[in-house]
Amino acid sequence: MTWEPGRLDDQRHLSGGDPGGMLPAVAAAAAHVRTGHRTAVESRVDRLAEMGRPRAIVVAGMGGSGIAGDIMAAVIGNGAPLPIITLRSYQLPGWVGATDLVIAVSGSGDTGETLAVATQAVRRGCTLLGVGAPGSPLEAIATQASAVYVPVPVSGQSRANVWLLTVPLIVAAAALRLAPADAELFERVATALEDMAHRCRPASESFVNPGKSLALDLAESLPVIWGSSAAASVAAYRLACQLNTNAKYPAIFGELPEAGHDQVATFDGPMAERDIFADAPAHALRLVVLRDVEEHPQLTRQREASLRLARERGVPVTELAAEGVHPLERMASLILLGDYASTYLALGYAVDPSSVSAISELKARISQ
Ligand SMILES: O=P(O)(O)OC[C@H]1O[C@](O)(CO)[C@@H](O)[C@@H]1O
């Protein structure tokens, strides 16, 4: 698997090298926001408000579905009047009970961890909200428990349907008066995503295409990806996961200020010394910092100082700024840019962005 930047502007390679259609799926982000909103409204997610505000919210989901919980928590923000956690495992924590809301998100509606948590939530008498494929085992659990279920029309990999899976959670947060989010906001987010998709479209060449430019930055490096606010950190985490799954590429995720207390030390380590890997420059670090308009003043200082520190040591850096006012808009712009970049990175290495054979093999081995 060799890196060939010319592949990014070779239209035949961009379609032929993407048999699962990851690029068109990424381009559907705006449509997914609109459909996710419409489906949530039609499924009467607002009924959650009748049960009153829960004591805590637990979002159960894995991979491309679990990120929906992180996005919801970042939209609600630091002023949240209740704890919100994303659970990426098989077991509900002992403290979760009947006064809590459990939201189970699964694109396939058939992921073992998520089904296990949804079942436990029903047994404990929690309020359950399900989001996922129509006619799935998750829908069956929700229906049997008379819970609200949002049957979103997911096609392909869950990670390529992130907005279908996330928007119903933001609608739920608005119904519970935890975040302002109305039809006008979702339309604004969709428009911003359309704009980003246009800038990153396959026909747009590398030197003007932000998705391809980011892929060019990331290629042949070990990316260390930080966020400088809660919202930017969700996008940073998503980018790391998309690099893993789309490009089969390693990435290290960090969040300021914590990364300034540990990961920053790697700027002085072997991976930062490009010359010791002279015949394998692919091992050199690259610091990617996702910045937000809403940063704690100390985090702005940490971000700026960390970037300086990296540059002084010869560690290449990429800085990306979120666009928009509402946190959902800001995360959406960064996430879509990263979705494109990870797909272009895969295509530049002639890797199929849709296939996840190692994940399938792992699943097959544990099901025996
Ligand atoms: O959204 P689902 O179907 O619950 O799957 C969760 C995650 O698990 C995977 O199927 C891989 O195991 C991913 O594609 C997905 O992100």
Automatic annotation (TrEMBL):
CDD domains per UniProt: SIS_PGI_PMI_2
Domain SIS: 47-184
GO terms, molecular function: carbohydrate derivative binding; glucose-6-phosphate isomerase activity; mannose-6-phosphate isomerase activity
Keyword tags: Isomerase
Descriptive protein name: Mannose-6-phosphate isomerase
Keyword Isomerase: yes
One of the protein's GO biological processes: carbohydrate derivative metabolic process
Family: Belongs to the PGI/PMI family.
Organism expressing this protein natively: Nonomuraea diastatica
The keyword rRNA processing belongs to this UniProt entry's keyword annotation: no
Pfam family, any one: bact-PGI_C
